[in-house]
Design a protein that fits this description.
Layout (H helix, E strand, L loop, with lengths): L2 E4 L10 E8 L8 E2 L2 H6 L1 H5 L10 E4 L9 E9 L5 H18 L3 E5 L1 H4 L5 H15 L17 E5 L6 H25 L7 H12 L5 E5 L1 H6 L3 H7 L7 E8 L8 E11 L19 H15 L5 E11 L11 E3 L5 E3 L7 H14 L4 E6 L3 H7 L4 E5 L2 H14 L3 E4 L3 H5 L8 E2 L8 H10 L8 E5 L24 H9 L3
Parallel strand pairs: 1-7, 2-5, 2-6, 6-7, 10-11, 10-14, 13-17, 14-18, 15-16
Antiparallel strand pairs: 2-3, 4-5, 8-9, 9-11, 12-13, 15-18
This protein binds ligand BES and zinc ion (ZN) (2 copies).
Length: 499
């Protein structure tokens, strides 16, 4: 494995590079502290003249420093001791990973114990270190004719308490969460021609092998037989067949109700007859990120062997303009019998989710949680920092907030009320797929989805349109342009709270 936890002394290893951390002082004129005492002594001069400040995100590479067996020493700033969180560590480790890469080193040691000195929560920090490293290691270059050989970097995380069971388990959990996130990122980054609904389903089947997950895939004929008029209607304009992917995980007694995760798997959305503008349309290969992240969530839950029952449902299709494409004004019937007018064929995500949510309801779950790149309005409202979520269930809301704090992912609760529901009434059918009102496009989309969730079932909808990909340079462990794998870590935490 590229990243491991070693129970040894930094001084006993032989490695080209060493990563240590620095912390800034909370007293104004006091200098920074290097977390490794021996190096702190050796670096008195740069500490005194503030060449090393210990500020969060500071990265200083001391080339040819020659400490013990290490040729180079990398000093990464953590900020003030009392302000260090798991997210600080995730980011700092990612910055360290970049510095190792910049050196061209294939192997490095990382001094873990310095991070935790004043903090009791060593296991939480071990998890964050593992996540920071594994998330940083993701690169999508498989379609390049020349491969990037800098990919395989080994980092030994060195700690005197590495033998501690809880620290080991947490480190392992971090690796699983992040590698499943990387798996989902790849699904998102693949272009539409190489990640069709069929390929998405086949890739899920292959990934599930040996994990204990049961994957069932419905083809077009079965989808028709199952009365999934939304999914079928959206797929009408495409030469590619739709797929409905069912992923089952049983980690608890059969009597225990499952949590169902539902994902939008639009492998390409050109808008259909209500076609999108060309500029930026290539980004609509990412319209399956909700589905991809649900698949990643199920893989992580299975690999962590959580003691819960979980089902993942991914409705997958393209939205194109073939001769049989759904036309504006067409009426389709969803699985639960409700009819809807398609007044804008670009509002297709809600149509395929309608069937998936109806099916989820039939499973009589503890809760339903969906993820979808559903509306451009979400990007306007929250940009790429926060994922907006909608729920009318206060206990589920509390669980979501708790899970997001644990995962370090930013979420924001959005409004959903009967006003929004009213705006989605149809003229010729039960519902319209676009709102009759002004603005609040993300909330009215959520209100449409709500019509397919059984009464009394706690349900939350996560609109990841702004956070599913291209989250910019804010998160050093996340690529600027590609898929982010957002909400996988939060969903795993949320699943745990339903045990
Ligand atoms: N996949 C898009 C939403 C989207 C847009 C996600 C931009 C990320 C970035 C979705 O299918 C869509 O096109 N929604 C429409 C709905 C509208 C027609 C009511 C939108 O948001 O414009
Ligand atoms: Zn669309
Ligand atoms: Zn879409």
């Amino acid at each position: 494995m590229a990243f491991n936890l070693l129970n040894t002394d930094i001084e006993t290893l032989t490695c080209p590079a060493l990563v240590v951390f620095s912390k800034s002082s909370s007293q104004k004129d006091k200098g920074a502290k290097i977390t490794h005492p021996e190096l702190h002594k050796k670096l008195q001069a740069p500490l005194a003249d503030k060449a090393i400040t210990g500020h969060h995100q500071e990265s200083i590479t001391l080339r040819e420093f020659a400490y013990q067996s290490y040729r180079h020493v990398i000093v990464i700033g953590l900020g003030k001791e009392n302000e260090i969180t798991h997210e600080t560590v995730r980011q700092s480790v990612a910055i360290a990973y970049e510095a190792i890469k910049a050196l061209g080193a294939k192997e490095a040691a990382l001094h873990f114990d310095g991070i935790t000195t004043a903090k009791k929560d060593a296991a939480g920090f071990a998890k964050a270190v593992a996540e920071g490293l594994m998330l940083s290691s993701y690169a999508f270059n498989e379609l390049m004719s020349k491969k990037d050989d800098a990919k395989e970097i080994s980092v030994h995380v060195v700690s005197k308490s590495a033998a501690d069971k809880s620290i080991k388990a947490a480190f392992g959990e971090g690796l699983v969460l992040a590698s499943c996130t990387n798996f989902s990122r790849r699904l998102g980054d693949m272009p539409g021609n190489l990640m069709t609904p069929t390929i998405l389903a086949d890739t899920t089947l292959a990934a599930a092998k040996g994990t204990g997950l049961k994957v069932t895939v419905w083809d077009k004929a079965r989808i028709k037989k199952e009365k999934m008029g939304g999914l079928l209607g959206v797929s009408n304009g495409s030469a590619q067949e739709p797929r409905f992917i069912i992923i089952e995980y049983k980690g608890a007694a059969a009597s225990k109700k499952p949590v169902v995760f539902v994902g939008k798997g639009l492998t390409f959305d050109c808008g259909g007859i209500s076609i999108k503008p060309s500029a930026g349309m290539e980004e609509m290969k990412f319209d399956m990120c909700g589905g991809a992240n649900v698949i990643g969530t199920l893989l992580a839950i299975a690999k962590l062997k959580l003691k819960i029952n979980v089902v993942g449902l991914v409705a997958s299709t393209e939205n194109l303009v073939g001769p049989a494409a759904t036309k504006p004004g067409d009426v389709h019937t969803a699985r639960n019998g409700k009819t809807f007018e398609v007044n804008n064929t670009d509002a297709e995500g809600r149509l395929i989710l309608a069937d998936a949510l109806s099916y989820a309801t039939e499973l009589e779950p503890q809760a339903i949680v969906d993820a979808a790149t559903l509306t451009g309005a979400m990007v306007v409202a929250l940009g790429n920092t926060h994922t907006g979520y909608f729920t009318r269930n206060s206990s589920l809301k509390t669980k979501i907030e708790k899970s997001a704090i644990e995962s370090g992912e930013c979420v924001w609760n959005m409004p959903l009320c009967d006003f929004h529901v009213k705006d989605m009434k149809g003229t010729y059918a039960d519902l319209s797929n676009i709102s009759s009102g002004k603005g609040a496009g993300s909330a009215t989309a959520a209100a449409f989805l709500e019509q397919f969730v059984g009464e009394g079932i706690p349900w939350a909808h996560f609109d990841i349109a702004g956070t599913g990909w291209a989250v910019g340079s804010r998160l050093p462990y996340c690529s600027k342009k590609g898929a982010s794998g957002v909400m996988i870590r939060t969903f795993v935490e949320l699943a745990k709270l339903h045990a």
